[in-house]
């Protein structure tokens, strides 16, 4: 549920290798999808580090096994949110990232942190924003009776779970769905939409219009629909 200032500039241009830091809080399945896609598709990018908000996050071991630098800060070790974010920012900046990707990072970030990464901070949220910000999105979807649900990859803004949309994934809500079954279906499209968006960022293809909408050079398909496979 991160917060950030709105991106103030377009994506970096040129052909140099981009440096990406990924933030996680748990097992990091979206992080794994990003790492694997970066390697498989030979993005012009390097996963410079994976950093977790808790030292027992399962995704840290997975990343370390693949030679990716890892780090962790436990938010409960800090007296204030500002102190945690200042320490996190210092750890991230050691890796000189072009982009910071929030892959299940369950912390609301302070204005100082988000301003520092303005235009470089990207989140994936498990709903079709602007519907269902915050927590328990799958239960929210079932409770309201929507027939389609999904995920959104977006630049982070000061408004919680809000910001210019880079890509979305969509799944049907099926009869008899539970939040857990719906979550599994959404995760499938998350693992497609987030790597695609990250690749466009790495390739320098993403820009913002004056009215804060995202454009992607080459006009690729930006809606990923669950196929049932």
TrEMBL record:
<feature type="active site" description="Proton donor">
    <location>
        <position position="125"/>
    </location>
</feature>
<comment type="pathway">
    <text>Purine metabolism; IMP biosynthesis via de novo pathway; N(2)-formyl-N(1)-(5-phospho-D-ribosyl)glycinamide from N(1)-(5-phospho-D-ribosyl)glycinamide (10-formyl THF route): step 1/1.</text>
</comment>
<keyword id="KW-0808">Transferase</keyword>
<dbReference type="InterPro" id="IPR002376">
    <property type="entry name" value="Formyl_transf_N"/>
</dbReference>
<feature type="binding site">
    <location>
        <begin position="28"/>
        <end position="30"/>
    </location>
    <ligand>
        <name>N(1)-(5-phospho-beta-D-ribosyl)glycinamide</name>
    </ligand>
</feature>
<dbReference type="InterPro" id="IPR036477">
    <property type="entry name" value="Formyl_transf_N_sf"/>
</dbReference>
<feature type="binding site">
    <location>
        <position position="123"/>
    </location>
    <ligand>
        <name>(6R)-10-formyltetrahydrofolate</name>
    </ligand>
</feature>
<feature type="site" description="Raises pKa of active site His">
    <location>
        <position position="161"/>
    </location>
</feature>
<feature type="binding site">
    <location>
        <position position="81"/>
    </location>
    <ligand>
        <name>(6R)-10-formyltetrahydrofolate</name>
    </ligand>
</feature>
<keyword id="KW-0658">Purine biosynthesis</keyword>
<dbReference type="Pfam" id="PF00551">
    <property type="entry name" value="Formyl_trans_N"/>
</dbReference>
<protein>
    <recommendedName>
        <fullName>Phosphoribosylglycinamide formyltransferase</fullName>
        <ecNumber>2.1.2.2</ecNumber>
    </recommendedName>
</protein>
<feature type="domain" description="Formyl transferase N-terminal">
    <location>
        <begin position="19"/>
        <end position="197"/>
    </location>
</feature>
<dbReference type="InterPro" id="IPR004607">
    <property type="entry name" value="GART"/>
</dbReference>
<comment type="function">
    <text>Catalyzes the transfer of a formyl group from 10-formyltetrahydrofolate to 5-phospho-ribosyl-glycinamide (GAR), producing 5-phospho-ribosyl-N-formylglycinamide (FGAR) and tetrahydrofolate.</text>
</comment>
<comment type="similarity">
    <text>Belongs to the GART family.</text>
</comment>
């Amino acid at each position: 549920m991160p917060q950030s200032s709105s991106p103030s500039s377009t994506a970096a241009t040129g052909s140099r290798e981009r440096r990406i830091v990924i933030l996680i809080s748990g097992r990091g399945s979206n992080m794994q999808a990003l790492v694997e896609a970066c390697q498989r598709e030979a993005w012009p990018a390097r996963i410079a580090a994976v950093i977790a908000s808790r030292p027992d996050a399962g995704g840290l071991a997975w990343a370390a096994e693949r030679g990716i630098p890892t780090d962790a800060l436990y938010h409960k070790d800090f007296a204030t949110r500002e102190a945690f974010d200042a320490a996190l920012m210092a750890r991230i900046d050691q890796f000189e990232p072009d982009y910071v990707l929030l892959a299940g990072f369950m912390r609301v970030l302070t204005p100082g942190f988000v301003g520092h990464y303005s235009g470089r901070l990207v989140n994936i949220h498990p709903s079709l924003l602007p519907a269902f910000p915050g927590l328990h999105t799958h239960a929210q979807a079932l409770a309201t009776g929507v027939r389609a649900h999904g995920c959104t990859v977006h630049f982070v803004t000061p408004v919680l779970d809000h910001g210019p949309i880079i890509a979305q994934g969509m799944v049907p809500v099926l009869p008899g769905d539970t939040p857990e079954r719906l979550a599994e279906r959404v995760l499938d499209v998350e693992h497609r939409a987030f790597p695609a968006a990250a690749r466009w960022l790495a390739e320098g293809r993403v820009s913002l219009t004056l009215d804060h909408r995202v454009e992607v050079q080459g006009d690729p398909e930006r809606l990923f629909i669950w196929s049932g496979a």
